[in-house]
Design goal:
Elements: E1 2-6, H1 7-18, E2 32-38, E3 41-47, E4 51-57, E5 60-63, E6 65-70, H2 71-79, E7 85-91, E8 94-99, E9 102-109, E10 126-129, H3 130-140, E11 155-161, E12 164-170, E13 174-181, E14 183-184, E15 191-196, H4 197-209, E16 221-226, E17 230-235, E18 238-243, E19 262-267, H5 268-279, E20 288-293, E21 298-304, E22 308-314, E23 316-320, E24 323-328, H6 329-336, E25 343-348, E26 355-359, E27 365-369
Antiparallel strand pairs: 1-5, 1-7, 2-3, 2-6, 3-4, 4-18, 6-9, 7-8, 8-9, 10-14, 10-16, 11-12, 11-15, 12-13, 13-27, 16-17, 17-18, 19-23, 19-25, 20-21, 20-24, 21-22, 25-26, 26-27
Helix pairs in contact: 1-2, 3-4, 5-6
């Protein structure tokens, strides 16, 4: 194996794949990145057996071949090299790397020991706008449960139906739902799958590494393909393949209130500032802030024996009944941060029923929060 590549390209490629590897005592080769040189260029591949990432790089390949090396070592070493061409040559069991006056040998392991990665047939796939998809993932991932006692809640629900992809994340205390459009290569049946949170986080991380349209090669489309227990995401020069979570996602539609007792329309920025201020006086660990709604005024209130108490009167458009709820202010802020609108709608039934936050202008994001019972 021998090839020449620009330092900038190799550095970015390694940053894509090296993050996935981790110290694995039982299978040490999973700490390595697989480097595969072929006529068209170079593939960098990593896997933790749950997720695999393949990133293709343009390079001048003089001799085809493949080899694996410790991902942390090569990633950190390449990042320190001068901004120039890098020559990589496999000699026996050493990866020889040369760049200007820098020369090194990195010990590695034969690629024959590297796990065989799954292949997903690309017959009937879904196509999404990359920027919309990245925003949608960020809008739901924070709501996903970190407790794996209920494995189905430790992932994001992907529901493909009527050219709409609905993404849902919940930990049973709050729920985020975001809807975007998709196109398909042919007529597709409705399909719902659960994608692990770790996979979603990797996709967001990698998409954030593409800084410009130029790096996406003018193609702003992302392809999603499914099998019975695997899902792949392909865009530009990168493919991510992940196992799916096998299980039944809760029928969350049943808990969305169809009617509200109280409806408020509030300036988002003012609401965020008031919640942050009140949060300073909430009880540690409970993060409770009260919303007291009367005919003549609406106030946010919080009190703690340690910090004191606070009350802020809000300017709102009010419809319905007088009401009051207590909520986790951090949950509210996370929902508000994912609403792109000057004004937000808050719908309340009572202090025992989820309340709804959504944009005043758009209908593609829904956020539910369970109140704190007093």
């Amino acid at each position: 194996m021998k090839f020449i590549i620009l330092k900038e390209n190799l550095k970015q490629g390694l940053s894509m794949v090296a993050h996935l590897t981790s110290k694995n005592i039982n299978l040490p080769i999973l700490n390595n990145v697989l480097i595969k040189a072929k006529k068209e260029g170079v593939d960098l591949i990593s896997t933790n057996l749950e997720i695999s990432i393949n990133h293709f790089l343009r390079a001048k390949v003089e001799k085809e071949g493949d080899f694996t090396v410790d991902s942390k070592i090569i990633n950190e070493y390449v990042s320190l090299l001068p901004e120039d061409k890098i020559e990589i040559n496999l000699v026996n069991e050493d990866l020889n790397i040369k760049c200007q006056n820098y020369k090194t040998k990195i010990k590695g392991q034969a690629s024959s020991d590297f796990p065989v990665l799954p292949k997903i047939e690309r017959n009937g796939c879904y196509f999404l706008d990359i920027n919309e998809f990245k925003t949608a993932l960020s809008s739901v991932i924070f709501s996903v449960s970190t407790n794996e006692n209920r494995i189905e809640l430790s992932g994001v629900l992907f529901s493909f139906k009527n050219e709409k992809l609905t993404l849902v994340g919940t930990d049973s205390y709050r729920l985020s739902e975001k809807t975007i459009n998709f196109k398909s290569s042919n007529i597709m049946d409705d399909r719902s799958v659960i994608v692990p949170a770790r996979t979603v986080q990797e996709i967001i991380r990698i998409l954030n590494n593409f800084k410009s349209e130029e790096q996406l090669e003018g193609n702003n489309s992302l392809e999603v393909c499914l099998t019975e227990n695997q899902i792949s995401f392909s865009f530009a020069s990168t493919q991510i393949i992940s196992r799916l979570i096998i299980g039944n996602y809760p029928d969350y539609q049943q808990i969305i209130p169809q009617k509200e007792a109280t409806k408020l329309i509030i300036n988002k920025n003012s609401f965020v500032r008031a919640i942050k201020t009140s949060g300073l006086f909430s009880k540690t660990g409970i993060n409770d802030v009260g919303l007291i709604i009367k005919k003549n005024k609406t106030v946010l209130t919080a009190s703690s024996s340690q910090t004191g108490e606070n009350e802020i009167e809000l300017d709102v458009d009010f419809k319905g009944e007088e009401n009051d709820i207590f909520f986790n202010y951090k949950y509210f802020l996370e929902g508000l941060n994912n609403i792109n609108s000057d004004k937000v709608i808050l719908k309340i039934v009572n202090n025992n029923t989820p309340c709804i936050l959504k944009a005043d202008e758009e209908d593609d994001f829904l956020y539910l929060v369970m109140p704190i019972k007093q």
